[in-house]
From TrEMBL:
<comment type="subunit">
    <text>Monomer.</text>
</comment>
<feature type="binding site">
    <location>
        <position position="42"/>
    </location>
    <ligand>
        <name>S-adenosyl-L-methionine</name>
    </ligand>
</feature>
<keyword id="KW-0489">Methyltransferase</keyword>
<comment type="function">
    <text>Specifically methylates the adenine in position 2030 of 23S rRNA.</text>
</comment>
<keyword id="KW-0698">rRNA processing</keyword>
<dbReference type="GO" id="GO:0070475">
    <property type="term" value="P:rRNA base methylation"/>
</dbReference>
<dbReference type="Pfam" id="PF04378">
    <property type="entry name" value="RsmJ"/>
</dbReference>
<dbReference type="GO" id="GO:0005829">
    <property type="term" value="C:cytosol"/>
</dbReference>
<dbReference type="GO" id="GO:0036307">
    <property type="term" value="F:23S rRNA (adenine(2030)-N(6))-methyltransferase activity"/>
</dbReference>
<protein>
    <recommendedName>
        <fullName>Ribosomal RNA large subunit methyltransferase J</fullName>
        <ecNumber>2.1.1.266</ecNumber>
    </recommendedName>
</protein>
<feature type="binding site">
    <location>
        <begin position="142"/>
        <end position="143"/>
    </location>
    <ligand>
        <name>S-adenosyl-L-methionine</name>
    </ligand>
</feature>
<feature type="active site" description="Proton acceptor">
    <location>
        <position position="163"/>
    </location>
</feature>
<feature type="binding site">
    <location>
        <position position="115"/>
    </location>
    <ligand>
        <name>S-adenosyl-L-methionine</name>
    </ligand>
</feature>
<feature type="binding site">
    <location>
        <position position="163"/>
    </location>
    <ligand>
        <name>S-adenosyl-L-methionine</name>
    </ligand>
</feature>
<keyword id="KW-0694">RNA-binding</keyword>
<dbReference type="InterPro" id="IPR007473">
    <property type="entry name" value="RlmJ"/>
</dbReference>
<feature type="binding site">
    <location>
        <position position="97"/>
    </location>
    <ligand>
        <name>S-adenosyl-L-methionine</name>
    </ligand>
</feature>
Length: 283
């Protein structure tokens, strides 16, 4: 079943924390000249138009990226995110993770973006056309299978973004087994996993993100969790926020991401809060 369409949610608070973190990872990789490879296992369409009927339905971007529009942030990571997005927001659009990657990577860095939904893949391919010849590849394939087939990269530097729709309850287990498989092949992989924070109303999925994070921490690699809550966790709240677990995070990303998230919460609503906790310390 592939019914999820990211256009409904593009640019919302969850995209903000996910893409801020991903940008922080890419910025850290760019500190060295040596090329790196980026993997996006669940890439989506790449570019979203706020005026199309899906995005326009709930206008989720209004409580996410739009509340940061033209803000002059005091923190560098947030400023970089706003500057990148503003070029798109000015045209009523939002860049998804593969476009953020292709915009930020250098010519000699490689990107593999994987997407399984035929309609979303067709859009991704069209949106990638403008970047042809820049070592940017899109693949119509299962992201978990693709990660095993395409890792480790040569040279052995890079990062993975894992951003499933979590439509199926067993997608949480797929993330854990997928990452376990990758770490066996590529121990140093820097991995960002996005997850939703769901209230009791979510039924069987309630608590699934928390259980997934526990299973990921049991894999033993250094990791932290960064979460942003936009509403109170009451029974009926639904998705009250989201988080990213970062495995093998780059040096100082914990500090820069904390500062950026703290500043974001000041702009996106008085009920929003954030926290970053190390799960397995980096010794
Ligand atoms: C949350 S969206 C991705 C959003 C994107 N990462 C971004 O930040 O702009 C999840 C995407 O994963 C796709 N998908 C679902 N299962 C997949 C799988 N097994 N492999 C690859 N893509 C998958 C869905 O079609 C959907 O487009």
């Amino acid at each position: 079943m592939l019914s999820y369409q990211h256009a409904f949610h593009a640019g919302n608070h969850a995209d903000v924390i996910k893409h801020l973190c991903w940008l922080g990872v890419i910025k850290a990789l760019k500190k060295k000249d040596k090329p790196f490879t980026l993997y996006d296992s669940h890439a989506g369409a790449g570019l979203y138009d706020f005026t199309d009927s899906l995005s326009a339905k709930n206008k989720e971007y209004k409580t996410g990226v739009s509340s940061l529009s033209n803000v002059s942030a005091s923190c560098e990571l947030l400023n970089d995110y706003i500057t990148l997005c503003q070029r798109f927001v000015d045209k009523d659009a939002y860049p998804g993770s593969p476009i953020i990657s292709v915009e930020l990577k250098r010519d000699h860095d490689v990107l593999h973006a994987m997407e399984l939904h035929p309609g979303e893949y067709a859009k991704l391919e069209a949106n990638f056309a403008a970047y042809a010849g820049h070592h940017s590849h899109c693949h119509k394939r299962d992201g978990f299978e693709g990660l095993i087939a395409l890792t480790p990269p040569k040279p052995n530097r890079g990062a993975i973004l894992i951003d499933p729709p979590y439509e199926r309850a067993n997608e949480y287990d797929d993330v854990v087994s997928g990452i376990e498989g990758v770490l066996k092949r590529w121990q140093q992989a820097q991995i960002v996993v996005w997850y939703p924070l769901l209230s009791e109303r979510a039924g069987a999925k309630h608590g699934a993100s928390e259980r997934m994070c526990e299973a990921l921490s049991a894999l033993g690699a250094p990791c932290f969790k960064a979460e942003m809550q936009v509403a109170e966790n009451t029974h009926d709240a639904g998705m009250y926020g989201s988080g990213v677990m970062v495995i093998n995070p780059p040096w100082q990303l914990d500090t820069t991401l904390s500062v950026a998230m703290n500043e974001v919460t000041g702009y996106i609503g008085e009920n929003s809060t954030c926290r970053l906790v190390w799960v397995n310390e980096d010794n």
